[in-house]
Each structure stands twice: as structure tokens, then as C-alpha cells.
């Protein structure tokens, strides 16, 4: 799937500026507009912030993630320039997919704290291309199976 251009990817009114989970969960995924500053908080619960199919109000956004006795997954688009400065105290704050992205991709700064909890970071293609790729692998598997029979 081709990367979206700046015209259809940036700008617009933010969908929400925060998400909170207290002994429960939240999810921000699909088509939504990420504000320039988004705060995610999970206390004894879990959260999911998925920006693969999102628009960005500005080219550079800051995600402030706080997980206290809970967990949070943050999924960024493949072309994003990701910078992580979060800290894990008796928990974990993933820095594994923090790396430069494409020149026309969004810049995502991830800050925060994981206290006896965790904040995970994933880099994935948009859900549309994931489904297409999965369908293609399934078709290849079926062809291989037929060839063996």
C-alpha cells in the first residue's frame, strides 16, 4: 500500500485529547485524528493507542503514556519518525521501535512512565495493508498446499 501524502494525512480537528482506563480498558484506533498532545493513562487496566490509520492534527505529535499497575500498547505507522523518552520503574517502557521514519511521515514523541506496569511499542503497516498482506499469504499457503497434494 502506498504511503499517504501530507495533504490527506495532516490537519483536522482532533478526535480526543485523552484516554483513561481505571480497572478497565480503552482503545483509540481506526480512523481518528491524533491531537498535537495526547495523554493516555491506565491504572490497573489496559489501553491501546493505534495510529496506523489515523490523521494527525500536526506533523509532530506528543503521546504522554502513563501505566500504573497496568499496561498499554502503542502502535505507530511504519513511516513515522518515533522518539521515546519514557521511563519504566519496576516495569517496562519499550524503546525498541524508536527510529527515524520517512521524510514525509509523522513525528511521534512518546513520553511517560510505567510504574509496575508496561508500555509497549509496535511499528506496523496500516490495517488495510495488513489485511491485504494476510490475504496474500493465505492464498500462497493454499497454493503450496495444493501443490503438495
Task: Supply database-style keywords.
149 residues, mainly beta, 6-stranded parallel sheet, globular, disordered N terminus
The helix/strand order is EEEEEEEEEEEEEH
Enumerate the spans where pLDDT stays under 50 for 5 or more consecutive residues.
Answer: 1-5
Radius of gyration: 17 Å
Summarize the amount of helix as a percent range.
10-25%
**Shape label:** globular
Percent strand equals 35-45%
The helix/strand class is: mainly beta
> So how many helices?
1
Chain-averaged pLDDT: 86
Oligomer: single chain
Write up this protein.
The protein is globular. It starts with 17 loop residues before the first strand and ends with a helix. The protein has one helix at 127-148, and strands spanning 18-22, 25-28, 33-34, 37-43, 46-50, 55-56, 60-68, 71-77, 81-84, 87-89, 92-93, 107-115, 118-124. The longest helix has 22 residues, at 127-148. The protein has one domain (6-148). The chain has one helix and 13 strands, in the order E-E-E-E-E-E-E-E-E-E-E-E-E-H. Strands 1, 4, 7, 9, 10 and 12 form a six-stranded parallel sheet that branches. A five-stranded parallel sheet has the order 2-5-8-13-11, with no helix packed on it. The chain has a two-stranded parallel sheet with strand order 3-6. It is mainly β. Mean pLDDT is 86; it is low at 1-5.
